[in-house]
Design a protein that fits this description.
- By secondary structure, this protein is of the alpha/beta class.
- It contains 17 helices and 32 strands.
- It has three domains: 135 residues, no CATH class; 329 residues, Metal-dependent hydrolases (TIM Barrel); 86 residues, no CATH class.
Length: 664
């Protein structure tokens, strides 16, 4: 056995459908080399580059080939002529219900293959336990999670408005680090929600700044305060400031220009661009609606009235002067943020707030208090303008994310059943706001890059086989505020890790989804669109636990090319034999002193072709001395990890051209 192979055993133990020799005794021909071929589709690969007609082959849960495969065969072949073939959509703002994850019909019929839960700072502080419970009954799609600032603040500080002591800060920092060690895809926050609302900016920075070493992101539901007159500009500015001070990528989550600041989306986007020019790359996500959904009182009842939790709030309702003041402040927030009482809809009863006001013969603030006294309920809150939404959707660093997740609840926001097809049908096909290529980029490679994902988001050899196939002439949403449970149409097939989760528009019951964990070597980053190169100068010495290997690596990708050119070879100098050599290359992604790419590789002694994921660190922040390191995963299992000579690695990325000025 070659040196280095003991570390490959986990990968070789995985069962896959690979080609077998002819069985003369039984008279059977060899199995085809691919599991599935999607034939003659129009491929939009996630890069944002122009579409092309091509076949897509899948083997062992990975993309094996993209191109002309007319001479190849697969166990399953499907003609997708006239359909678009794209990477599976990645929802980086998911409120998935664990009970809905085994089937996830509302998400699969939107083309979604991956959900990242715990946005807005929520979720559990024990990410491992949370995701284990969520996946216990099987997963129809992939699931990962953030570690939430709100969850940490609530666990340590509790519901009261009080300052964090030094020991409290230390305890919350430990929660954040543990979450990242356990695979969190970023540190989320919802500073608009109590009790995290009570945290001061510098306290937030102190709690989340240990995550800077992980080079991750900070998605935040902006805090809009009465002191700022509920200003979205102030809220976005605070998100950027926290991310910049803490050394994280700020992400303005479910971005919007609310209430009285409607029409000012350009200013919000300008603030993001200024931060990026300062060196603090800033991103956003958005959904294609002009209303959101949350608890009725969460953003309306003033912070001082929620101090101490729900029971304390209910007691304040019983005090006449406090009740009057609370009602007045509810109406102020409602008018400033949500266009008044006319902008509030109660999905549980399918009533407009103004109708309930007439029934109760009470003004808006008093009506909200009476509803909350009966129990918690959700509300759909209208906030913005179509012109602002279009500007936000078009911004180059805005991902599409639905602020929804796997669910069976039909009395809720229509985004849970229609967000992604709504973008494709309304904003691409009907209004030409986005191109097909850019819309797909915003649903795949861009969100993957924003959170640090490396093996999904592109249709390229070696990538995980998460695929969405849809009809560009029919894809559209049907869900409405009054009837939110109507499924979208036009999504024809969805594959999750190479298996059909949706076929011919119907859920198959397959549960091929996985819990996805981020590692320390998956930084949040801008998408790489300019020319880039990755070279291991000469033949690098790869020092692994099983002995020394040699790595030869030289990749180049031009700015308008979908894939890299060059090659990868791993060899054993002791025996002068090749362990792995690349046969097909995927997309090269780079950022500061870091690079990754996927490939198809072939081993020695006639071993079948497999998929490889390679991550190169030029100065690894998690190893003493920050040496150059390489991680090579084969078929999804960690196969080879080692160090390189400090001078061996060369990563180069061409500077982006200055953007042309465009009038909005």
């Amino acid at each position: 056995m070659k040196r280095g192979w003991p570390l490959l055993l986990p990968a070789l133990a995985v069962s896959h459908l690979f080609a077998q020799p002819f069985d003369f005794a039984q008279g059977r021909p060899p199995a085809p080399p691919f599991d599935i071929i999607l034939r003659r589709g129009t491929v939009i690969d996630g890069t944002g580059l122009p579409r092309s007609r091509a076949d897509v082959a899948i083997a062992g849960g990975f993309i094996a080939r993209v191109g002309d495969l007319s001479k190849e065969r697969a166990a399953v072949e499907i003609d997708v002529t006239g359909l678009f073939v794209a990477p599976g959509f990645i929802n980086i703002h998911s409120h998935a219900s664990p009970s809905a994850l085994p089937r996830a019909e509302n998400m699969l019929t939107q083309g979604v293959t991956t959900e990242i839960v715990n946005p807005d700072g929520g979720g559990s502080t024990d990410l491992v336990d949370q995701l284990a419970r969520a996946s216990a009954s099987g997963l129809a799609l992939n699931v990962g999670g953030y570690i939430g600032f709100n969850a940490a603040w609530t666990e340590v500080i509790g519901p009261a408005d009080r300052r964090a002591a030094p020991e409290d800060i230390d305890a919350m920092r430990a929660i954040i680090v543990k979450g990242l060690e356990n695979g969190a895809w970023g540190v989320s926050a919802g500073l608009d929600y109590k009790p995290a609302y009570y945290a001061q900016l510098e306290e937030v920075v102190r709690v989340v700044e240990p995550a800077a070493r992980w080079r991750t992101n900070f998605p935040n539901h902006d805090r809009l305060t009465p002191e700022s007159n509920f200003s979205s500009r102030a809220g976005v500015g605070e998100t950027i400031a926290i991310g910049e001070k803490a050394g994280l990528v700020p992400v303005v989550t479910h971005m919007k220009a609310q209430g009285r600041e409607q029409g000012q989306a350009g200013d919000l986007l300008g603030a993001m661009q200024q931060a990026t020019r300062r060196g603090a790359y800033t991103a956003a996500d958005a959904y294609p609606y002009l209303a959101g959904q949350t608890g009725l009182g969460a953003l309306l009842v003033p912070a001082w009235a929620q101090d101490g939790g729900r029971q304390a709030m209910l007691e304040r309702f019983t005090d006449p002067p406090s009740r009057t003041r609370i009602a007045t402040e509810i109406e102020r927030a409602m008018n400033a943020r949500f266009n008044g009482a006319e902008g509030v809809f109660l999905p549980a009863t399918r009533q407009q707030l103004v109708d309930v006001m007439r029934e109760m013969n009470a003004p808006a603030g008093e009506t909200v208090i009476r509803i909350l006294e009966q129990g918690n309920t959700s509300a759909i809150l209208r906030f913005g303008s179509e012109a602002d939404l279009v500007k936000i959707l078009k911004h180059p660093t805005t991902s599409i994310a639905c602020d929804c997740g796997a669910s069976t609840e039909t009395r809720q926001h229509p985004r849970a059943f229609g967000a992604f097809p709504r973008v494709l049908g309304r904003y691409v096909r009907e209004q030409n706001v986005l191109t097909w290529e850019d819309a797909i980029r915003k649903m795949t490679a861009l969100p993957a890059s924003t959170i640090g994902m490396v093996d999904r988001g592109f249709l390229a050899p070696g990538m995980a086989a998460d695929v969405a196939v849809f009809d560009p002439t029919t894809v559209i949403d049907h869900a409405t505020y009054e009837d939110a449970g109507q499924l979208s149409e036009g999504i024809r097939h969805v594959l999750v890790n190479g298996r059909f989760a949706l076929r011919d528009g119907r859920v198959t019951g397959e549960q091929a989804g996985r819990v996805l964990a981020r590692t320390a070597h998956m930084p949040s980053r801008p998408m790489t669109t300019t020319a880039r190169e990755l070279t291991v100068l000469g033949t690098g010495r790869l020092i692994t636990a099983a002995g020394d290997l040699r790595l030869s690596l030289a990749l180049t990708q031009k700015s308008r090319a979908p894939r890299a050119t060059g090659g990868l070879t791993v060899s054993d100098p002791a025996t002068n034999t090749t362990t792995w050599t690349s046969t097909e290359l995927g997309t090269l992604q780079t950022t500061d002193k870091w690079a990754t790419f996927t490939a198809r590789v072939r081993g020695v002694d006639g071993e079948p072709e497999r998929s490889a994921l390679v991550i190169v660190e030029q100065a690894d922040p998690f190893v003493d001395g920050k040496p150059a390191t390489v991680t090579i995963s084969i078929d999804g299992a960690d196969a080879i990890r080692g160090r390189l000579s400090p001078t061996a690695v060369d990563i180069r990325t061409a500077a982006p051209a200055a953007p042309a000025r465009r009038r909005e």
